[in-house]
């Protein structure tokens, strides 16, 4: 365990100081792109205006013989575009793969000043985060980067789920965590063949009542893991996300899965197909009435202190802080979406 006094120390001489607070950033969807595909790279500038985060995927779904092309393609697209408020992330290859070290060294060396977050797959325990944490500090020092690159873990192995709490509190570099249902299903030896979502065989049967027909209700396979991940993240002030939904032909099921995770506390999900972007916006955007009320709180308490009554409800410093987070997020969304800007009154 790292002692409290050392927790926020930079891990290399000359590396930027670790963040003490999460930046307020809207991250309703982490949109995956394959950087080795030239046609897709050419569209990244437009895409960046439509999504909250563009993630260059270097790991699974990129064939082994395209790994280097994906890495250099990512560097090219990072250099060629101004991402503005849109987050720029990579999903690097797993630490036990032959590509992981060069992914980090080459990408941080070339475009580390543009990279916000590294998504680390197949995280098993705090030791995986500590390894990347130190390596990033060394590279940040070498390349004189001004701000630390954050780490986002994918929760997708049985051991990772067992260690989820220590992963969440492993480093001030932790941005958040995503559920990886496909690898997790394999790691757990679940009897499924899907990327997220439910399964028709997993459910409960109503009680026997003579000869009456019994109803069968399908249940959510991911409830336990998402709730466990949300607790670990919320307790450590980092962000929980639902991961991928692989059936692009079933937008209703995708929306149901995203909404379940939102209701349980997740702040966003991955989008692997353009049709999923609108769903994520719908599900994960702050509620219009909530934003309007939050704005009234912020307006009523210009310096954020004291107490005021609004519609019979007491507001004080603590509700002001909650309201400020909602208003700041809504402003970021309003900047890029005129319809929501009008609805929010921003
Ligand atoms: C994502 O990486 C998954 O395995 O579901
Ligand atoms: Mg995976």
The unreliable regions are none
Strand order of the largest sheet: 1-2-3-4-5-6-9-10
**Could you tell me the strand content as a percent range?**
5-15%
Query: Architecture of the largest domain in CATH?
Result: Alpha-Beta Barrel
Shape summary: globular
Family: Belongs to the HpcH/HpaI aldolase family.
Binding site for substrate: 91, 156
Cofactor: Mg(2+)
Protein name: Malyl-CoA/beta-methylmalyl-CoA/citramalyl-CoA lyase
Describe the protein in words.
It is a single chain. By secondary structure, this protein is α/β, with parallel strands linked by helices. The protein has helices at 4-7, 38-42, 44-50, 67-80, 100-111, 126-142, 158-162, 164-168, 181-188, 223-235, 251-264, 275-284, 288-300, 317-336, 338-344; strands spanning 29-33, 53-57, 87-91, 117-120, 150-155, 174-179, 203-205, 216-218, 239-242, 268-271, 308-310, 313-315. The protein folds into 2 domains: 4-284, TIM Barrel (Alpha-Beta Barrel), CATH 3.20.20.60; 290-344, no CATH class. The strands form 3 sheets. The protein has an 8-stranded parallel beta barrel, surrounded by 6 helices. Strands 7-8 form a two-stranded antiparallel ribbon. It is globular and about 70 Å long. The termini are far apart. Bound molecules: glyoxylic acid and magnesium ion (MG). The site of glyoxylic acid has 10 residues, from helix 9.
